[in-house]
């Protein structure tokens, strides 16, 4: 509960007004006791929480960075893009807020249902077109009708931009966005009903000396299946999961790099000490191991596998037959 500190002059003025009858103490008490009513507009339903709006902002800040890199490479000039605002409003209000003639890239985000609109201010769109054709990037604020060449150039450019949209969303959903239509008149574009809530992400873009806006309109029906993933709880779980996966990968890498000693015993033989002293080159020692029986392969002196002796090219080798079950005890 917040409190407001009054200055001494304000206190003196209030006491003076009460003493002269200009203000009534009972009426002040009555006003404070009255229930404050907050007006709610059902035509502008708020269907996303502040937490979800923050996460949507974070996603599209990443999208803005990807677009900056993509457009800078395609147009061969420095471009700056940043998120200005993320709001939820009725679809009808979004249509009224954009120019009557503009560049509207309509794309689908399979497997999610519905369509998304990427609106490019005409000044920015023509500046991009001018750069593609070898110009300095001069913007022209007019869109009467696009020629076939202009349509083809813009379609190719924005198809690549929309691919970055899928990359920005990969932490939330595995989507495959693809451009389905390029429109210039918003009145001919009816994504959802006029009162349907949409998320509008507005981004500032600067190309040389030309500045403008890029707006992304995402209907609620598109985001509905992934809304639970926009919560802070989900993001924390994903962050913890990524950290755990990283720790497991690091531990596995360290284990794989560990050096182990592998030994194979061909068999055993018992002789007297006097025979050992008289051993000479060419003597043969009989082993207790039969030739058709598997031998024991030890890892760091622990019996781990059964194997058989063989030869690979000119090298002696041991072929692993099976793993020794837990509980094996060496006969030594």
From TrEMBL:
It is a peripheral membrane protein. Keywords: Bacterial flagellum, Cell membrane, Cell projection, Chemotaxis, Cilium, Coiled coil, Flagellar rotation, Flagellum, Membrane. Residues 254-324 form the Flagellar motor switch protein FliN-like C-terminal domain. The lineage of its organism: Bacteria, Bacillati, Bacillota, Bacilli, Bacillales. Residues 11-38 form a coiled coil. The keyword Iron-sulfur does not apply. It is found in: Bacterial flagellum basal body; Cell membrane. It holds the Pfam family FliM. InterPro entries: CheC-like_sf, Flag_FliM, FliN-like_C, SpoA-like_sf. The gene is fliM. This is Flagellar motor switch protein FliM. One of its GO terms (biological process) is bacterial-type flagellum-dependent swarming motility. One of its GO terms (cellular component) is plasma membrane. Belongs to the FliM family. One of its GO terms (molecular function) is cytoskeletal motor activity.
